[in-house]
Amino acid sequence: MSLLPGNHDGDRRGHLGTAGCEIEAGIRGHSAADRLAVRQVESRPLVTELRVWFEAQIAKLPARGPTAEAIRYALNHWDGLARFVDDGRIELDTNSVERAMRPICLSRKNSLFAGSDEGGENWACLASLIETCKLNQVNLQAYFTDLLTRLVNGWPQKRIDELMP
Q: Do both 78 and 24 map to the same domain?
């Protein structure tokens, strides 16, 4: 059974994108090793089929047409596009990244009202520390309490990098 557009043999359950999304939805939250195993079995054939379909379609399309350009772009970046099949650590869903970026964007907007350039720079440093703590699952209150205590007690400037979360 083919899952690509235009192939209507047998029980067609959907196109490649839907099938790929369903596979990823089924392995979301699993370990990288588990995701890799499923992708090797289920996603690899779909990705291979997509490349074959792209190559067949590009031969039929006007060379300078927008669809041909899009397919050519995908084929030129194929290694990056298909890398997820060989690396279970790669997330195809960007929602977690977008959620992580949202507070940074809001902070950037808020920092416009920091009062001065120096205030904006200080705000950016603090926002960066806070987001780094969150990404590394560091307790914000405990980290900042320890950080400020060390700084007040004369932590050497040349060792400041050691204080990063």
A: yes
Helix (H) / strand (E) element for 33: namely helix 32-38
Residue 146 token pair: 């320890």
Task: Note down the domain range covering 81.
Answer: 16-86
Model confidence at 13: pLDDT above 50? no
Is residue 10 assigned to a domain? Answer: no
pTM of the model: 0.54
From the CB of residue 125, how many other CB atoms can be counted at a distance below 10 Å? 10
Among candidate residues 69, 86, 103, the one where a domain is terminated? 86
Q: In total, how many domains does the chain have? A: 2
In angstroms, rounded to a whole number, what is the distance separating the alpha carbons of residues 132 and 126?
Answer: 10
Q: What length is written for the chain?
A: 165
What is the DSSP secondary-structure string of 62-102? Answer: -TTSHHHHHHHHHHHTHHHHHGGGG-TT--S--HHHHHHHH
Is 9 part of a structural domain of the chain? no
Boundary of a domain, candidates 60, 86, 112: 86
**Virtual torsion, Cα 52, 61, 68, 15, nearest 10 deg:** -50
Residue pLDDT, tens place only, 125-146: 888 888 888 888 999 999 999 9
- As to burial, measured by CB atoms within 10 angstroms (0-12 exposed, 13-18 middle, 19+ buried), residue 150 is middle
Average pLDDT of the chain to the nearest whole number = 83
